[in-house]
Amino acid sequence: MAKKKSGLNPIYRLRLEADLKRLTDQLEQMRSLRVAEDRREGSPFGKREEEATETAELENGLAMEKKLLDQIAETEYALDKYDRGVYGLCEMCKEPIDPARLEALPQARLCMQCKSKAAKSY
């Protein structure tokens, strides 16, 4: 475990670690369910409707898996920032992010003011 950086609340690191574990557990569970479904034997006389449903389910599963992978990457990045002592600082203005925002979204990269500016530029 990384050593605690001065000035950073260790609660944030614990929350990020718990989130990372929860996300990786969900990903593993999703992947194991998909493997179990792949092994399931289907009828060689499958109907087009059944194939369409299976395709839609596969696409939804892959989209959910990608979302989990993105959340895992964001959480790992936040933990890296914590270890470097820059966690909780806005990546645009370098000012501290409001603790209430970090409580709601521990992997937040921007303060609300910069997030608002970034959203308007799109």
Give a verbal description of the structure.
Helix content is 67%, strand content 0%. With 122 residues, it is mostly helical. Helix 1 packs antiparallel against helix 2. The radius of gyration is 20 Å and the shape is elongated.
Structural class: mainly alpha
Helicity range? 55-70%
Structure annotation, total helices: 4
User: N-to-C SSE series?
Assistant: HHHH
Coarse morphology: elongated
The poorly predicted ranges are 1-6
SS elements, strand count: 0
Round the mean pLDDT to the nearest integer and report it. Answer: 85
What Rg do the Cα atoms give? 20 Å
Question: Biggest sheet: strands, sense, closure?
Answer: none
Strand content: under 5%
Q: Distance N terminus to C terminus?
A: 39 Å
Layout of SSEs?
Layout lengths: L9 H30 L8 H37 L14 H6 L7 H9 L2
Provide a brief overview of the structure.
With 122 residues, the protein is mainly alpha-helical. The protein is built from four helices and no strands.
Q: Which features would summarize this protein structure in a list?
A:
disordered N terminus; mainly alpha; elongated; 122 residues
